[in-house]
Design goal:
There is one protein chain. By secondary structure, the chain is of the alpha+beta class. It has a single domain, classed as Outer membrane efflux proteins (OEP) (Up-down Bundle). It contains 10 helices and 6 strands, in the order αβααββααβαβαβααα. The strands form 2 sheets. The chain has a 4-stranded antiparallel sheet. It is elongated. The two termini are 52 Å apart.
C-alpha cells in the first residue's frame, strides 16, 4: 500500500469559529432527544431489568437441577491412580491406574425428585414471565405518565402566557382606576400559582424521564414519547373471567414441587435402592511386595455388580420426610393465599375503576364546558354581548375575561388529562391482576 501524506493547513483565527460551530452541529443530532415508541421502551426495560435477569438465572438453575435429577441413571466415568511404595505386608491395592463407573438403577424416591424438579422448572419459567409482565407494567405506566405530563406542560406554558397577559391588563386597568388593587394582586397570585404548577410538572417530567432512562439504560433526557405508539387500553367488562396470573401459577407449581419432594422423602426409608458399579484396575508389584504374600498376581483386574440396599430403620430419614411434608403444606397454603389476595385485588380495582371512569367522564365534560365558555367569551369580545347599554343590561366583557377563560379552559384540560392517566393506570393494573397483561403486550408489539 502506498503512503498517505498529510499536509498541515493553516486556518486563520477568523475562520476557526465557524468550523467549530459546524463540527458541533454535525455531532449534535447524536445527543438530541428522539421519539421512542412504547414497545421499544418495554423491550429495552425487559432486557435491562435486574429482576428479569435474576428470574432468568433461576430458570437456568432449575434446568440444571432437573438435569441433575435425571442424569443419575446415566453411568458416570472417572479415572485415577494410587501409585505408592510399601514395605512388608501390602496395605493397599497396587493400582497404578484405575477407572470406575456407577449409576442408579432403581430408586422409588428418585422418580418423585424428578417430578419435583420438573415442577420447579415450570415455576421458575412462570416467575420469569411474571417478572417481565411487572417490568412491562411499570415501564408502560411511567411512559404513559410522561406522555401525559408532556402534554400538560404544553398547556401549563400556555397558562403562564395567559396569566402574564392578564397581569398586564390588570396593571393597566388598576392604573386607570377601573379595577381595584385587589384584582391586580389576584392576577399576580394566579400567575405565581401557575408558575409553581409548571415547576411541579417539570420536576415530575424530569423524574419520569430519569426513571425510564434507568429502566432502559438509555441516556438521560434522550427519550421523547410517541403518543401514537400507545395502544388504547381496553376497558374490562363487568364479570370478566380472570385467568390465573403467572405468579399464582408459579405458586401452584412450587406447591406441587414441594409435595413431590415430600413424597420422595417418605419413600426413602420404605423402598429398596439399587445401584450399578464397575471398576478396572491396572496393578503392579514393582513398588511393593504383593507377590510375596499373594499368588497368581495379575496386572489387569475388572469387576462389576449391583448394590441393593433395603432400609430397615432410619430415624433420620423419617424426620426429613416430616420436614418435607411441613414445607409442602406451607407452600400449598401460600399458593391459596396468593389466589385469594389476587381475587381481593381484582374486586378492589374493579370498584376503583368504576369511580375513575366516572371521574374521567366528569373531567372531560368540564373541559368541554370550559372550551364552549371560552368560545362564547371570544365571540362576545368580537361582536359584543348583544344586551345593549340600558339599565339592567349585561355589561360588556373586558379583555381580562378572555385570559381568565383561556386559563380556565387549559386548567380543565390538564384535569382531564390527569383523570385519563389515572384511568389508564388502573386499567393496566386490573389487566395484570386478571391475567390479561400478555394480550395487551401482544397488541402493543403489533402496533
Amino acid at each position: 500500500m502506498g503512503k498517505m501524506h498529510l499536509q498541515n493547513v493553516h486556518i486563520p483565527r477568523w475562520g476557526r469559529a465557524p468550523l467549530v460551530v459546524g463540527l458541533a452541529i454535525v455531532g449534535l443530532p447524536a445527543f438530541l432527544p428522539a421519539q421512542v415508541s412504547l414497545a421499544t421502551i418495554v423491550d429495552l426495560a425487559a432486557k435491562n431489568s435486574g429482576t428479569v435477569k435474576l428470574a432468568q438465572a433461576d430458570v437456568e438453575k432449575a434446568t440444571a437441577a432437573l438435569m441433575q435429577a435425571q442424569d443419575v441413571y446415566i453411568p458416570n466415568l472417572s479415572i485415577g491412580s494410587t501409585i505408592g511404595y510399601s514395605v512388608g505386608f501390602p496395605t493397599g491395592q497396587p493400582s497404578i491406574a484405575n477407572a470406575s463407573t456407577q449409576s442408579l438403577v432403581l430408586s422409588f424416591p428418585q422418580r418423585q425428585y424428578i417430578r419435583a424438579a420438573k415442577a420447579g422448572l415450570q415455576a421458575s419459567q412462570l416467575n420469569l414471565k411474571d417478572a417481565r409482565e411487572q417490568v412491562a407494567l411499570d415501564t408502560s405506566t411511567a411512559y404513559i405518565e410522561l406522555d401525559t405530563v408532556t402534554h400538560e406542560l404544553d398547556a401549563a406554558q400556555q397558562e403562564v402566557t395567559y396569566a402574564a397577559r392578564l397581569v398586564e391588563i390588570e396593571q393597566q386597568r388598576t392604573e386607570a382606576g377601573v379595577d381595584p388593587l385587589s384584582d391586580l394582586l389576584q392576577a399576580q397570585l394566579t400567575a405565581a400559582q401557575l408558575k409553581l404548577k409548571q415547576l411541579h410538572l417539570q420536576t415530575r417530567a424530569s423524574m419520569l424521564a430519569k426513571q425510564l432512562a434507568a429502566l432502559t439504560s438509555l441516556p438521560a433526557g434522550s427519550i421523547v414519547t410517541d403518543h401514537v405508539s400507545i395502544p388504547e387500553i381496553p376497558a374490562v367488562k363487568a364479570g370478566e373471567v380472570a385467568r390465573p396470573t403467572p405468579a399464582i401459577q408459579a405458586a401452584g407449581f412450587i406447591a406441587h414441587s414441594k409435595e413431590f419432594q415430600a413424597k420422595g422423602d417418605s419413600l426413602a426409608d420404605r423402598r429398596p435402592l439399587v445401584t450399578f458399579g464397575a471398576q478396572y484396575n491396572l496393578d503392579s508389584n514393582k513398588l511393593n511386595s504383593y507377590s510375596t504374600y499373594y499368588n497368581n498376581f495379575t496386572p489387569n483386574n475388572f469387576g462389576f455388580g449391583l448394590s441393593i440396599q433395603i432400609p430397615i430403620f432410619d430415624i433420620g430419614l423419617r424426620a426429613k420426610a416430616r420436614e418435607s411434608a411441613a414445607d409442602a403444606l406451607r407452600a400449598r397454603v401460600e399458593a391459596e393465599q396468593a389466589s385469594r389476595q389476587n381475587d381481593v385485588q381484582i374486586a378492589s380495582l374493579t370498584g376503583s375503576l368504576r369511580e375513575l371512569d366516572a371521574l374521567a367522564e366528569i373531567a372531560s365534560l368540564k373541559q368541554q364546558i370550559a372550551h364552549e365558555q371560552l368560545e362564547t367569551v371570544l365571540a362576545q369580545l368580537e361582536l359584543g354581548n348583544g344586551a345593549g347599554t340600558g339599565q339592567g343590561a349585561t355589561p360588556q366583557l373586558s379583555p381580562k375575561a378572555e385570559q381568565q377563560a383561556r386559563i380556565e379552559e387549559r386548567q380543565k384540560l390538564e384535569d382531564a388529562m390527569d383523570a385519563g392517566f389515572d384511568l389508564s393506570k388502573a386499567r393496566l393494573t386490573l389487566l395484570r391482576s386478571l391475567g390479561l397483561m400478555q394480550d395487551w403486550l401482544n397488541e402493543l408489539r403489533a402496533k
